[in-house]
Specification:
Layout (H helix, E strand, L loop, with lengths): L1 H14 L21 H6 L2 H40 L9 H24 L13 H26 L6 H28 L6 E7 L5 E6 L4 H15 L5 H16 L13 H14 L1 H46 L8 H22 L8 H13 L4 H9 L18 E4 L12 E5 L4 E8 L28
Antiparallel strand pairs: 1-2, 1-5, 3-4, 4-5
Length: 471
């Protein structure tokens, strides 16, 4: 019976059509009053789209305004006395002119530093405001307003005539702003570089696990770093493999039959006990079925892979032969790389399609992406193995199209406030539509390293030579 069932599965696979990714079917049982998951997600999508751009560019706008205020304030301090009471100002000597040169270069350095640290495009939209950024913005505003208050009371009201002192006052403001920027570099960039915690990231559906070291970060910043690691290191999430295991479990349960021996209507409890009893009797044969099924699957994968490797090698050999012929042909007869890729693709398309279907990754690669990758390999004179590496093993998420990134569908679930720093035993969840990432935090232990001195004289020895020996 097992062999007949395998033959029927192979026959269904042979009769399947040749369209890429069009044979995947999702069967759901819903009532007339039910609402699908896509409809639930789409309820607030309109409002989210309207507020997404505002939340993305609001920090950049605030940072630009604060930066302009910081850069314009010293220049205004220098220009106001020259505009309001120029007749009573004292002459600016060589020392004062040197301060002009100093403040010019300091403002230029501060402009480049602000651009490098604060005016970068945002990588993500966090649920809460970054505490350190808010603190630095508040500190900058307080510093600027304090200088403005002192300038208004002691210089503008009194109309101070010492222009050299006014220039020194502006220079001191620029120096203070440079120190604030240094504090920003320490808090935002340097503090998190030293690893302090080890996080374990587990994907809920297939149990894929990775471990990373992070520094002193808040929960939301740690979640952002983990998602960046996820797109780089985790293989692409493939729901087709999960549905295959569920189909095998459902098929196993469907083979259990419950008989009513006495002719009475059994209750749910009796039926459950009968199913458990039948499952216990079939326990010894269940692992054999799983073993043969996995062995047959591995055999079919190896067979499809061997056919694919041979087809690709033959296609690349044909391309090399055509390239040698093109060297002797006229320039008008030389084939373009895109045309060459389109010409040799049909010879390997069927083998590649069958392999992707067998490994259940046909939805990850479109025909256009495969042809584009083939043209890229031909342009750079790559080997057939380099072309096949993208299809023989699942790659990280970023290697596929943006429609599979789910970059705007993550939700951070945490009992503690997301602005708190991570600590020993912290746990939080990163959830999207199809799966979630469970994160646990452990502290890196304190390492005590001691030294043991070895006397160099202890390694010396004496070799006695004797005439009787061969030494």
């Amino acid at each position: 019976e097992r062999e007949r069932e395998r033959e029927r599965e192979r026959e269904r696979e042979r009769r399947s059509d040749d369209n890429w990714g069009e044979t995947t079917t999702a069967v759901t049982g819903t009532s007339e009053l039910s609402v699908s998951q896509e409809e639930v997600v789409g309820l607030g999508k309109g409002i989210q789209d309207r507020t997404q751009g505002f939340r993305r560019y609001l920090p950049l706008a605030v940072g630009s305004c604060v930066g302009l205020l910081v850069l314009a304030t010293p220049l205004v301090f220098l220009l106001l006395p020259a505009v309001m009471w120029p007749d009573r100002l004292q002459a600016c000597g060589a020392a004062c002119e040197g301060l002009f040169l100093s403040i010019s270069f300091k403002l230029l350095i501060l402009l480049v530093a602000i651009w490098a640290l604060f005016l970068r495009p945002g990588r993500a939209s966090l649920p809460r405001v970054c505490v350190y950024r808010a603190f630095l913005t508040t500190l900058t505003l307080l510093l600027t307003m304090s200088y403005w208050l002192f300038y208004g009371v002691r210089i503008l009201d009194a109309q101070d005539e010492d222009y050299h002192g006014i220039v020194q006052f502006a220079v001191s403001l620029v120096d203070s702003q440079l120190f604030v920027h240094y504090l920003a570099v320490v808090l935002l960039e340097l503090r998190q570089l030293q690893p302090c915690y080890s996080v374990c990231v587990i994907r809920s559906t297939d149990g894929e696990t990775r471990h990373y070291n992070i520094g002193q970060l808040s929960i939301q910043r740690a979640a952002l770093s983990i998602l960046e690691y996820y797109y780089r290191d985790f293989p692409l999430h493939n729901p087709a493999l999960l549905s295959a295991s569920k189909h095998r479990a459902a098929k196993h349960l469907a083979g259990l039959k419950v008989y009513n021996v006495d002719g009475a209507q059994p209750g749910n409890g009796n039926q459950s006990r009968a199913m458990v009893t039948a499952a216990a009797k079939r326990k010894d044969s269940a692992h054999n079925e799983l073993y043969y099924e996995e062995a047959d699957y591995e055999r079919r994968v190896r067979k499809r892979r061997a056919r694919l490797v041979v087809a690709v090698e033959e296609a690349f050999t044909h391309v090399r032969r055509m390239k040698k012929e093109d060297e002797r042909a006229a320039p008008s007869d030389i084939m373009d790389v895109r045309e060459a890729a389109l010409a040799i693709f049909p010879s390997m398309a069927r083998a590649l399609q069958k392999y992707l279907r067998t490994t259940r990754r046909q939805h990850c690669h479109s025909m256009e992406s495969i042809q584009k990758h083939l043209a890229f390999c031909l342009v750079n004179n790559m080997s057939p193995k380099a072309f096949l590496e993208a299809y023989l093993a699942p790659g990280p998420t970023l290697q596929y199209g943006p429609e599979r990134w789910m970059a705007d569908q993550w939700t951070l679930v945490s009992e503690a406030s997301v602005t708190n720093g991570v600590k020993e035993g912290s746990e939080f969840l990163l959830r999207c539509l199809d799966f979630s990432l469970a994160v646990t935090v452990k502290s890196i232990p304190y390492i005590r390293l001691t030294e043991e001195y070895i006397d160099p004289k202890s390694h010396k020895f004496i070799l006695l030579l004797q005439s009787e020996t061969s030494v």
